[in-house]
Amino acid sequence: SAYRLCAMKKLPSVLSRTLASGTSSSSMLPDMSEVRSRLREIVGASTNWRDHVQAMQERKALHTLLAKRQEDLPPRRMKDSYLEVILPLGSQPEIREKYLNVHNSVRFGRILEDLDSLGVLICYTHTKQEMQPRSPLSIVTALVDKINLCKKIIYPDCDIKFTGNVSWVGKTSMEVKMHMLQLHDGDYSPVLDATFVMVARDPENKRPAFVNPLVPETPEEEEIFKQGELNKLKRIDFSTASLLKMAPTAEERNIVHDIFLNTLDTRQEGERGGKLKTYEGKKLMTVSFRSRKLPPNSVWMEDAKLKGLQICHPQERNIFNRIFGGFLMRKAFELGWATACSYGGSRPFIVSVDDIMFQRPVEVGSLLLLSGQVCYTEKNYIQVRVHSEVYDADTREHQTTNIFHFTFISENEVPRVVPKTYG
Fold this sequence. Notes:
By secondary structure, the protein is an alpha+beta fold. It folds into 3 domains: 27-216, Thiol Ester Dehydrase, Chain A (Roll), CATH 3.10.129; 250-270 and 277-293, no CATH class; 297-422, Roll (Thiol Ester Dehydrase, Chain A). The chain has 9 helices and 14 strands. The strands form 3 sheets. The protein has a 10-stranded antiparallel sheet. The protein has a two-stranded antiparallel ribbon with strand order 6-7. The protein has a two-stranded parallel ribbon with strand order 8-14. Helix 2 (32-43) packs across helix 5. Residues 81-204, 302-414 form the HotDog ACOT-type domain. It is found in: Mitochondrion.
């Protein structure tokens, strides 16, 4: 199969034992509505828009509860933050329609929302202090590092289980690994693995705040922790290798140059009466950089775009009175899916989500501009980049908030996408 294999990552053995198959314990697990209720309780958020603003003002007083040093916080184990949550699509049909798409499978955008909420709750579980009913920390999603899927279809009438725990901790950031499983014939089988990075900030969400250190207990946990450290180093390397900071590598230069040479149109230049020079009595044609032709079975990248606009209403706010990151992911995914669908001419299936960077929060009332762009294709695969920015009607300024990368597989082989400019 072209699909990446998605085996359950090796959880610490103490966690693995809780992943018992069957439905016997499912009815005892919290569901996603309870996850969101618990998050509101932890930060003292209100479900009422007007009260919510006041509640956020009251959070400022929690500054005094912040640790001055990480060493002042008690260490935690991986199992301390481990959570299991049920999405009862099979046993509670009344919630099914919210998750249903026209193809009679589960909307992946809704799953992104649920993963985002669960990741935040896992981090609050890791940092919970027994004597504090409300957390002084504002925990927000910084990055979706990776989501890999191993199922094309997520069924809308079978229960789903989410599991996860904190897998690595820095000074003010936490990596969370989550898994999604779906019930079939009495057993839960893997659907996806996800790695999120969360950051802790002060009650006003303005400055970084320290979080409890994480202590691995077993060799398996030490491997998981080491992988989290490697992931962090890779992210640093990736950011420093940006084209805005560093020249392309030799391999990258060759790729770009080959694409450029394949799109030069020497024939048209001659037919247009292009520049001809004489050398030893022979007429030679000089090829212009402006004369480009599209190779067979290809599409110019500039012709593989879709755009969208969202008005960010209070209904889509998170517990900190900003627009919910899961909502942004859902809207970006749906535009990415539509971009892949219109490009490939058939139904695309999500395979992987990479490197969703949350560069700045989105305020309630913002105009959110989304731009989907096919940026790479290979056989049946389509990679889509979605750029998200907010437009301030008062200042008329545009600011990037997120960049999303989605990889889809189409039912049929797709045309090759070809860039025309260096950008």
